[in-house]
Write a structure and sequence with these properties.
The chain folds into five domains: 3-77, Roll (Ubiquitin-like (UB roll)); 103-184 and 514-561, Orthogonal Bundle (Fumarate Reductase Iron-sulfur Protein, Chain B, domain 2); 195-289 and 437-500, FAD/NAD(P)-binding domain; 292-434, FAD/NAD(P)-binding domain, CATH 3.50.50.60; 596-674, Alpha-Beta Plaits (2-Layer Sandwich). It is 29% helix and 18% strand. The protein has 22 helices and 25 strands. β1 and β2 form a beta hairpin. The longest helix has 19 residues, at 482-500.
């Protein structure tokens, strides 16, 4: 066989003559994107992704159909090629209807593979479930207990009866793994010799430290508190998150090789510049510990304390004197933690003062409900006008009666005062839980936002200082839920790893295909009620700080996990289409118009075919004809209306199809699924 010499992306290659550019590239481990090609089938050239640019040729060529010639100089990733490939992918995805990931995963800020770990829990494989969870969340037993689970709000099981108990299933699997003889330990990459310093040992700092350590870097976490955990340790009550659980999870991160240094305050025990000089990269994850002020007369009185400081003292083992009557200002989860903690400290009357209605309170409804069960009184549509004192100490709080006016920038109706309408309640302590901010002191020339938080690029968490990144509550929009901090820390860890490896930091938001559904789509599903977890009685739980939720039993957890509808694509991890779609940013919406009818059929006996995911690559049709020699599948219709349909003419053909399944194995998009 004659030999030819060609050049692909600057690499000289000697190859046999007569071979296509695509085949020669594949033999030399150079991937040229393609969806409709298979070396065992005849050349088809339909998808338009394998375009390449060749020297001296004004046209882009299809690598799958172009036979290489001696001296050919080929480039597979020029701007021109990328533009053409992008348009091809946008056209394909504009008519691709399916769920790459379930809405639960897409709603999770960290994009955990919810469907994946629920399946493992259903099968009794808790360690495997934890392995999947820890791809995104290194402290699942803790996060599972305190997360307000946005994943559950979009669980499609709600179209049948009720969403799955996703958060507590996560905690269930993590608890089982922690108590096992050999808890899950991820594999670490070879040491890189690079040093990373993480400032802050809360959820963001611990998350980034975990993934950077796995990547082979030497990681040290500095924290100003006596123990790691940040707001999880010092801002969340024991009855919601037992500190023994958190401590176990932190210890698994420490055993991985992360060095943890406590009682290290920036500017006091160590300077920011010292840390920078001794590190190849730095992540700031200090959280938001500075309380926001109420902004009314009297808040300087003795007996006015912030929710953060109050919870911090209690978690530190100090029991503050709060008296018998306590007012908590705020409607978020911190306010709920504060009011329920006050009940446990012996307060006889606890009021929550919130300027909007219950429906608009940011706290979880279950938190409000359980607080009411424990004896907390809610004063909605009220706002402190003045904190009244006597001899320098709180005596009462004067409340301005509010009503809802026009919607504000957040979309919620703005509370406005009812002129001349006030009421006064006697209290011994006022706890302010209306928000918190970060403290940027001691961090030199880092650029800040108008809110006083660290300004960090949203796509890679880089600050204005070389090699300095920031994540979590201390950045950009400020304090949020713990899973948001974990999600941002994932981005930061990925960016720092790329930075230390000399790779570009031009990350972009990945594209996923999503399907719109309604109750009608699930009308055939059996109704199985959500498991009702046992919760301690109010009369019992308000006397102590023991964990309120009793958790799920083995049987309850397995059955609850089995309720999953498996919305995400079964082939997502191996899908060539979505991998190529995310090589660069795409916008299929600009080509959105009429789309093929989306339906699922099982006429192939052992294979489920989803027409919405089909991209007419014709691989299944050609495989059935050329390899299986049956021709059961064929193209039906003309032009845009063309679809693939099966046709069975005898029992023998049906039996053959049942056992063949070659078409499903070659499908590049998950349109074909083998029925177990």
């Amino acid at each position: 066989m004659d030999k030819i010499k060609i050049t692909i992306n600057g690499k000289e290659i000697f190859a046999e003559s007569g071979k296509t550019v695509l085949k020669i590239a594949a033999e030399n481990k150079i991937e040229i994107p393609n969806l409709c090609h298979n070396e065992n089938l005849k050349i088809y050239g339909a998808c338009g992704l394998c375009l390449v640019e060749t020297e001296g040729n004004p046209k882009l060529l299809r690598a799958c159909a172009t036979v290489a010639t001696d001296g050919m100089v080929i480039k597979t990733d020029t701007p021109r090629v990328k533009r053409a490939r992008k348009i091809a992918l946008e056209l394909i995805m504009s008519d691709h209807v399916g769920d790459c990931k379930g809405p639960c995963s897409l709603s999770c800020p960290a994009h955990t593979d919810v469907q994946g770990y629920l399946k493992e829990i259903a099968l009794g494989n808790d360690k495997k479930a934890v392995e999947i969870i820890k791809e995104k969340i290194p402290i699942p037993a803790s996060i599972g207990r305190i997360c307000p689970h946005p994943c559950e709000k979009n669980c499609r099981r709600k179209f049948v009866e009720e969403p799955l108990s996703i958060a507590y299933l996560k905690a269930f699997a993590a608890d089982n793994d922690l108590s096992s003889e050999e808890p899950f330990v991820p594999k670490k990459a070879e040491p890189t010799g690079k040093k990373v310093s993480v400032i802050g040992g809360g959820p963001a700092g611990l998350t980034a430290a975990y993934y950077l350590c796995i990547a082979g870097h030497e990681v040290t976490v500095f924290d100003s508190m006596p123990e790691m955990g940040g707001m999880l340790r010092y801002g969340i009550p024991e009855y919601r998150l037992p500190k023994a659980v958190l401590k176990k999870e932190i210890s698994t991160i420490e055993k991985l090789g992360v060095l943890m240094k406590n009682n290290m305050s920036i500017g006091k025990d160590v300077s920011f510049e010292e840390i920078r000089k001794s590190s190849d990269a730095v992540l700031i994850a200090t959280g938001a510990w500075k309380p926001s002020k109420i902004g009314c007369p009297g808040e300087e009185l003795f007996g006015v304390i912030s929710g953060i400081d109050f919870l911090h003292e209690v978690n530190f083992g100090k029991i503050p004197e709060i008296g018998e009557k306590v007012a908590v200002v705020g409607g978020g989860n911190t306010a709920m933690d504060a009011c329920r903690t006050a009940i446990r400290l012996g307060a006889k009357e606890v009021f929550v003062i919130y300027r909007r209605t219950r429906a608009e309170a940011p706290a979880e409804d279950i938190e409000i409900e359980e607080a009411i069960e424990e004896g907390v009184t809610f004063r909605f549509l009220t706002n402190p006008a003045e904190i009244i004192g006597e001899n320098g100490k709180v005596k009462a709080v004067k409340l301005q009666i509010m009503e809802l006016g026009e919607a504000d920038s957040s979309g919620r109706r703005k509370p406005v005062p009812v002129e001349g309408s006030f009421e006064t309640i006697e209290v011994d302590t006022v706890i302010s839980a209306i928000g918190q901010r970060c403290n940027p002191e001691g961090f030199g020339e880092i650029e800040l936002t108008r809110k006083g938080t660290f300004l960090a690029a949203e796509n890679n968490c880089m600050t204005n200082l070389e090699g300095v990144f920031a994540a979590g509550d201390a950045t950009n929009k400020g304090a949020s839920i713990a899973i948001e901090a974990v999600a941002e820390a994932n981005i930061a860890a990925k960016a720092i790893d790329a930075y230390l490896s000399g790779l570009p930091l031009d990350f972009f938001k990945p594209y996923f295909s999503e399907k719109t559904v309604s109750e009608k789509d699930f009308s055939d599903r059996e109704k199985i009620p959500r498991v009702k977890m046992e919760v301690k009685k109010p009369s019992e739980r308000k006397k102590n700080f023991d964990e309120v939720i009793c958790g799920l039993s083995e049987k309850e957890a397995r059955n609850e996990a089995k309720r999953c509808l498996e919305c995400g694509c079964h082939d997502f991890k191996d899908c060539k289409l979505i991998r190529y779609a995310n090589l660069q940013p795409i916008n299929p919406e600009k080509f959105r118009g009429e789309i093929h009818e989306s339906f699922v059929e099982r006429k192939l006996v052992s294979i489920e075919r989803d027409q919405g995911k089909c991209i007419l690559c014709n691989l299944c049709v050609r495989t059935c004809s050329e390899e299986a020699k049956k021709g059961i599948l064929g193209l039906v219709g003309r032009g845009f209306k063309t679809v693939i349909k099966p046709e069975f003419d005898n029992r023998e053909t049906i039996e053959f199809c049942k056992n063949c399944k070659k078409c499903a194995g070659i499908c590049p998009t998950g349109a074909l699924k083998i029925i177990e």
